[in-house]
Amino acid sequence: MQCLSSSDSEVRNLKITISYSGRDLHGWQIQKNALTVQECFQNALEEVIGCVPDIKGCSRTDTGVHANMYVISMKTEHRITCERLKAALNRYLPLSIVVLDIVEESDDFHARYSCKGKRYVYKILNREVRDPFSDGYALHYRYNIDVDMLNNAAQDYVGTHDFTSFCTLDKREKGDFTRTVKSFSVWREGDFVYMSVEADGFLYNMVRIMVGTLLKIQQGKLAPDSISDIIKAENRKEAGPTAPACGLYLDQVYY
Predict the structure, then answer these.
(1) What percentage of residues in the chain have a pLDDT greater than 90?
(2) pLDDT tens figures, 95-116
(3) Catalytic: 170?
(4) What per-residue confidence (pLDDT) applies to 93?
(5) Rounded Cα distance, 161 and 153, in Å
(6) Please, which residues bridge with residue 186 across strands?
(7) Residue 198: what are its φ and ψ, rounded to 5°?
(8) Overall pTM surpassing 0.90 (yes/no)
(9) Which residues contact 153 (CB under 8 A, 6 or more apart)?
(10) Residues 88 and 121 in one domain
């Protein structure tokens, strides 16, 4: 049920920070025949406040992608306090989604358009034998990864570039493909290798293609110094494959 507006009611703009496992969900945006984060969240809202306000998400996440931090903005006339709303939503949300924080923001705050940058982390289980407890939460890569080599190679991503070569082209991507990558780092913690990238914005599948390109360098199918030339080519065919969604986490959203 949609929320009704009354002229004498004060509208509040809420910033809602959530975290979720995307393993069994089909991304953020509502779909006709698949369960998504947005649908779960709207269902919980209807249980709590009796209607579904217009909500905005900070990013389009794909099927199987996770979020350590995801931000929603929502305008509502309901007077429930932020703390009570947080507790109530967590009661009705599935265990794969949790509300971390709710605060009131200025009227012009928008989860997507107010965002100044994001950080993604890609997680790889790097050992010969797979781990059942990492299934759906990390890419299993059985061959040794040289993190120093890949970290050095990844520095060519840093800077302001046209990232056409690192984008899956579809109807969602139009216009300027220039983005500024502020940092990219690769490191190991035990059996896990992590790749972290921070930028002012990301194109469709950009991080997963960056990761796939680095793994192709690891395999010796691309030279360690090839990233600059791939960027200049502005051709998706020059880059590596799109890494699976299971290892990708939206880690931080900056405002």
Answers:
(1) 89
(2) 999 999 999 999 999 999 999 9
(3) no
(4) 98
(5) 16
(6) 195
(7) -120, 135
(8) yes
(9) 214, 217, 224, 225, 227
(10) no
Residue range 53-79, pLDDT digits in tens: 999 999 989 999 999 999 999 999 999
* In a domain? residue 140: yes
> CA-to-CA distance for 131 and 140, rounded, in angstroms?
8
Q: Which of 105, 136, 164 is the last residue of a domain?
A: 105
Cα distance between residue 75 and residue 58, in whole Å: 15
CA 61, CA 27: separation in Å to the nearest integer? 5
Q: Pull the structure tokens for residue 117.
A: 């940058």
Domain identity same for 44 and 135: no
With tokens 């302001």, the residue in question is 160
Strand partners, 19: 98
**The token pair that represents 245 in the structure block:** 């969604």
What does the DSSP 8-state code read for residue 201?
A: -
Q: Which of 54, 62, 135, 200 is catalytic?
A: 62
**Which alpha helices (H) appear in 95-192, and where do they start and end?**
147-154
